[in-house]
Fold this sequence. Notes:
Number of helices of chain B: 8
Shape of chain A: globular
CATH architecture of the largest domain in chain B: Orthogonal Bundle
Number of strands of chain B: 0
CATH superfamily of the largest domain in chain B: Alpha-helical ferredoxin
CATH topology of the largest domain in chain A: Rossmann fold
CATH class of the largest domain in chain A: Alpha Beta
Radius of gyration of chain B: 19 Å
Mean pLDDT of chain A: 97
Distance between the termini of chain A: 32 Å
Order of helices and strands of chain A: EHHEHHEHHEHHEHHHEHHEHEHH
Oligomer: heterodimer
Structural class of chain A: alpha/beta
Strand content of chain B: under 5%
Strand order of the largest sheet of chain A: 2-1-3-4
CATH class of the largest domain in chain B: Mainly Alpha
Distance between the termini of chain B: 21 Å
Amino acid sequence: MRKLSLFTGCLIPNRYPGIEKATMLVLERIGIKCSELKEAACCPAPGIYRSFDNITWLTLASRNLVLAEEKGTDILTICNGCFSSLMDANNILKTDAGLRNEVNAHLQKIGKEYRGTIEVRHIIEFLHTDIGVNKLGDAIEKPLEIRAAVHYGCHLLKPTRERKLGSAQFPVFFDELVETTGAKSVPYEGKTSCCGAGGGVRSAMLETSFKMTEYKLDRIQKAGVDCIIDACPFCHLQYDAGQIELEKSGKDYDIPVLHFTQLLGLALGFTPDELGLHLNEIVNLKFEEKIAQIQKWY
Amino acid sequence: MKNPDILTCFQCGTCHASCPSGKYTSLNIRKIVRDSVKKDVSDQPEIWMCTTCYDCQERCPRGIKVTDAVLALRSEAVKKGKILPVHRNVCNFLIETGQSIPLDDKHRDMRKKLGLRIDEASRKKAHKEVKALLGSTGFEELIKK
Lengths: 298, 145
C-alpha cells in the first residue's frame, strides 16, 4: 500500500474538528499510518476559485500536491471539495504540458516544482478499495443496529469521467461501507441529489440553498432514519446547520448528522463525545442513548 | 463565450430538468448556456445560482460539459470585476490567512476540548507561500477590481 498524508482542508479543522478527531482515531485503530500534510493551505475550494480564475486554482492546488510529492506520499482527503479540487487539478496537470509549465513558472517563485508523481484519494473510496468491506467488517466491535440515510455528495462521484467510481445515479460503494458498521442504509427519494451548499450558492444565496436542503431533509425524514451519514464537511454543515435554520419555518427534523469517520468510530467503540458529535448543531440525546445502549450490549 | 461544443446542443432540456437549483431559482441552465454563445451573460445573476452538482453535465446526451461552461462564464464575469460581495469576502480570507474559512475563537476552543493542536508555524509558512502565489498569478489584483 502506498503511503498517505492526511489533507484536512479548511472546513473540518476550523468548523467541524470532531471529524478530524474521528478520522485520526479510526485510522489509527484500523492500522493505517497517515500523518497530516504539514504546511497545506486551502485546496482551494472548487466552488469559488475554480470559477474565478483557472490558473490561480491550479497553482494553489499544485502547491498542496507538491507538498505530498516531496514527502513521497499520496494524499488522503476527507472532504468532497478538497477531493474534487486536488484530484481534478492533479489530472489536468499530469496531462496538459502547457498548463503544467505555466503553473510551474508560478511555483518556481516559492522554490517548488510540480512533477505529477502522486495520486489523490478520498477516504470513502480508499477504505472501500484498498481496505475492503470484509477487512473493515472484521475490525467492527460494536455493530450499530441503526437506520442511516447515506448522502454521497456530488463531488465524490461527479464528474464520473474523472472520478471513475462508477454510477453517479445508483452508486453502491459508500452504502456498502456504511453497512459494514452494522447500520442499515435506508433508500430514500432524491438520494443522489445535491445538498444545496456547493458552487458558492450557500454563501451567496443562503435561503435558496436551504430550499434544496429542505427537499432532501423532507425525504430523509420520511424514510425514517436515526441519522444522516455524509462524506463531506460542506454537506455536513448544510444538513446540520440547515436543520436549525429550517426550524424557523416550522420544520422539526432533529436528525443527527455524522461524517462516515464518526459512524465508523462509534462502531469501533469510541464514545459520541470522543468523536465530537456533541459539537454539532443538532445534538439528539435519543440517538446518543441508543448508541450507548448498543455499545454497552457488546 | 467561444465554445464550439455548445453549438451541438439541440435544446432537449435534459440539463434543466436535472437541475436541483433550477427547481427553486430563475436559473435555466439550458437557456443561459445557449445564450452565452450569442451574447455576454456576465451580468445575469443566474450564473451564480449553480451548485456545480454536475447532474446536467452527466446527463447531457450530446456530452457537452455544461457545468464546466458555467465555470467559464463565471470567470468571464470575474474578469470584468463582477464579483458578489460575499464571494469577495471569502477570497479575502484566503489572501489574509491562506484558508477560505479561518479559525475563530469558538472553534479554537472546540479543538482544545478535543485535544487537537494547531501547528501555527506550519499555517504561517503556508500563508506566506499562498500569498506569494496569489500575487504571482494576479489573483489579488483580480479581487480588488
